[in-house]
Amino acid sequence: MRSKLNVIVLLIFFSSLTFAQDDINSATIKNVGDNIPAFTTTSLNGNSFSFEALKNKVVLINFWATWCPPCKAELPLLQKHIYDKIKDANFTLPCISRGEKEEVVKKFIEQYKYTFPVYLDTEAKTYNLFASKYIPRNFVIGKDGKIKWASTGFVQKEFEKMIKLIEEELKK
Questions:
Q1: Helix (H, G, I), strand (E, B), or coil: what is residue 101?
Q2: Of 21, 37, 46, 65, whose CB count within 10 A is highest?
Q3: DSSP states along 47-92
Q4: Domains of the chain, residue spans
Q5: What are 64-80's pLDDT values in tens digits?
Q6: Is 11 exposed, middle or buried (0-12, 13-18, 19+ CB in 10 A)?
Q7: Distance, CA of 170 to CA of 66 (rounded, Å)
Q8: Cα angle at 90 between 84 and 93, to 5 degrees?
Q9: Closest by alpha carbon to 96, among 72, 127, 132, 74?
Q10: Helix (H, G, I), strand (E, B) or coil at 161
């Protein structure tokens, strides 16, 4: 009887994992191999930023929010292991706050003393070109304008793989 219960519990667990992955996949609009969509957003400083500025560059677009625990875990690593370390004229890191007001984002950035470029997407218009739900989301764009990496959530090992991919893309 106990082994049947264990089997049922395992089936439910794996079914829920499959459902969760299917939900993430259905919420993903842009995938590896797709071209980057056209967008324009505004920085905390009020400067406009367009996908046109990304041509011939390796880009890591990060979508995040101040209330998101996985985002809060990932942002310090973006600062320390990517923004502070990858000093290359052909690399840019736009971190785009999804669906939040400027005052909230500004206070958060100042509190944690982040120096990477922060952009606002108060109505999630830019985000919705890439996905319909779930953050953090990272998209590595190659110099050819195609998505080379797409991830949802924050997993340390995946983050490390993403850094290696960025470094490889910069060598091309």
A1: coil
A2: 65
A3: -EEEGGGGTTSEEEEEEE-TT-HHHHHHHHHIIIIIITT---TTEE
A4: 2-171
A5: 999 999 999 999 999 99
A6: exposed
A7: 30
A8: 45
A9: 127
A10: helix
Domain 2-171 has CATH 3.40.30.10: yes
121 neighbors 88 (Cβ within 8 angstroms): no
Cβ-based burial of 60 (10 A; exposed 0-12, middle 13-18, buried ≥19): buried
Instruction: List CB contacts of 128: < 8 A, sequence separation 6 or more.
Output: 29
Half-sphere exposure of 93 (CA within 13 A, CB side): 22
Look up the pTM and report it: 0.84
| Amino acid letter, 102 | E
Half-sphere exposure of 56 (CA within 13 A, CB side): 1
